[in-house]
Amino acid sequence: MRLLNNQKIVSAALLVILTAICAADAQGQSILGEILRRLDTHNKSLQSLRAEVTMVKHNPQLNVSDTTSGTTSYLPKTPKRGMYVRIDWTKPVEEQISVIGDDYELYRPRLNQVIVGKVQKAKNNASVGGALAFMSMTRDQLRANYDVRYIGEEQIRGGTPTWRLELTPKTETSYKMAELWVDGDGMPRQAKIVEHNNDSTTVLLTNIQKNLTLKGDIFKLKYPANVKKIKA
What we know:
Order of helices and strands: HEEEEEEHHEEEEEE
Largest sheet: 12 strands, mixed
Helix content: 10-25%
Number of helices: 3
Structural class: alpha+beta
Strand content: 35-45%
Strand order of the largest sheet: 7-8-9-10-11-1-2-3-4-5-6-12
Number of strands: 12
CATH class: Mainly Beta
Number of domains: 1
Distance between the termini: 75 Å
CATH superfamily: Lipoprotein localisation LolA/LolB/LppX
């Protein structure tokens, strides 16, 4: 009889645990749905953006990080044109990068060289274009291309409260995972890409100005005629 009672107690405990897990999962899915709805609404209303940008590249094998900072201008992708991004790095060295669609140019004045290539294959400071691409993805694009998981609430640098999402690609890509930190307005404030070797690139936007008038010609880099062009 005592054994039977113990079995009943264990069964009841398991039922309570399973019920709690199911309830937590349902709540997480409800929060995720609301986050993606806000992200989609914000995406549709965003016409342009200018902000300060900080990029941190981390090598876990050596446990070292490199931080680069500057300013960025951004026009989201539309049915008529691709995404436009310009970044003017100021620290630790001056560099300029322009991303139009999947093509990028990286100008290094100190070396008098321009590196040209594709965003999906970009490395070093040019890889920021891949992280910023998440800023313009719609809810349907995220769900179609990634398994999206809600991790929880988190404050990013500067104290801004955000929701943290984990994105696992459904098909093979050049990276194994990405993360997004989305604020209450549905604005992605921070994005992180984790490579297959666990190296990561984290891009943070601060002092954001939205829906300014930005002309297309500001995304075209200006450099000397004798600059050396290198294909990435």
